[in-house]
UniProtKB/TrEMBL annotation:
GO molecular function, one term: RNA binding
Source species: Vasconcelosia minhoensis LEGE 07310
InterPro entries: Tab2-like, Tab2-like_C, Tab2-like_N
Protein name: Tab2/Atab2 family RNA-binding protein
Region forming the signal peptide: none
Domain RNA-binding protein Tab2-like N-terminal: 5-106
Domain RNA-binding protein Tab2/Atab2 C-terminal: 122-277
């Protein structure tokens, strides 16, 4: 099976001899055993140019990747159009560690180029919209902060849960977490809306949950590449204290946490489970 490619295509702090902004296409395999890069004037930065470059990268690599993974929303839109006629799928994904490290290294190298312009530049910066309220018709009966042990987590893998997302690389043993570490999370009793709620969550692609202290306090879901949703707001001090504990436990667990949706609190059936990790 061919590895996936991690891809970024966006403007850089560079200009050509005519003063036009330069874009750069970067392609890499997860272990950097294949890389490809090319600059492009902003006037030519479109899906047609990108498709041609992907075809050239295919010839150089000798294979089409299993998929193309993209973390930048602007890149995703162009890539999806460019790949319509190509035998490869496009997958939005935030945690592209190899590509992001390469982008950081390139940022340190750009000042050596004649085309460099000294301007503020953050290679991984993404414009994020203000959090939006989740659809009211999907709100469950109640929710709470919680924590489970490694054993509890393993048991979820054996449950007949309709929507289950436990990436192997996020398992505590893969992260080197001690068995004594409690994994924090949020449990939602969805009631009659339980299945509709998990279907909506699956479509939004949960990435991480965050407790935000304020007036009121909030529980925010980061999803997709840049989406943010308000799952709950509250002023109760007991819940706020539980939110602080949730964030402390996340830090102790290398960002690992979970989102569980169930019909009720009987603990007999579950509707959806996501194992998540906050960005480092």
């Amino acid at each position: 099976m061919s590895p996936s490619w991690q891809v970024d295509f966006y403007r850089r702090p560079l200009r050509d001899a005519q003063g036009n902004p330069l874009w750069e296409l970067l392609i890499c395999a997860p272990v950097m055993d294949f890389t490809y890069g090319e600059f492009c004037p902003q006037s030519e930065a479109n899906a047609q140019w990108l498709r041609q470059q992907l075809q050239l990268a295919h010839k150089r690599a000798g294979y089409w990747p299993e998929g193309i993974e993209v973390f930048r929303p602007q890149t995703l839109t162009l890539i999806e159009v460019a790949c319509r006629d190509l035998p490869v799928s496009v997958q939005p994904r935030r945690d592209l560690a190899t590509l992001k490290q390469w982008l950081r290294q390139r940022t340190a190298w750009y000042p050596n180029l004649d085309t460099y312009i000294d301007e503020p530049y953050q290679p991984l910066a993404i414009d994020r919209p203000p959090p939006a309220p989740m659809p009211e018709q999907l709100m469950g009966d109640r929710w709470r902060f919680a924590a489970i042990s490694n054993t509890n987590l393993l048991s979820f893998q054996q449950e007949p849960i309709p929507i289950l997302s436990i990436p192997p690389w996020l398992m505590p043993v893969e992260l080197g977490l001690p068995s004594t570490v409690r994994i924090p999370g949020v449990v939602i009793d969805g009631g009659r809306q339980s299945m509709r709620l998990v279907q909506w969550l699956a479509a939004t692609q949960p990435v991480t949950l965050e407790y935000i202290a304020g007036a009121p306090n909030g529980l925010i879901l980061e999803a997709g590449l840049a989406d943010r949703w308000i799952l709950a707001t509250f002023e109760d001090e007991t819940v706020a204290e539980a939110g602080k504990i949730f964030e402390h436990r996340k830090q102790a667990a290398q960002g690992l946490h979970f989102l569980l949706v169930q019909p009720d609190d009987a603990g007999v059936t579950y509707t959806g489970f996501w194992l998540l990790q906050a960005a480092a």
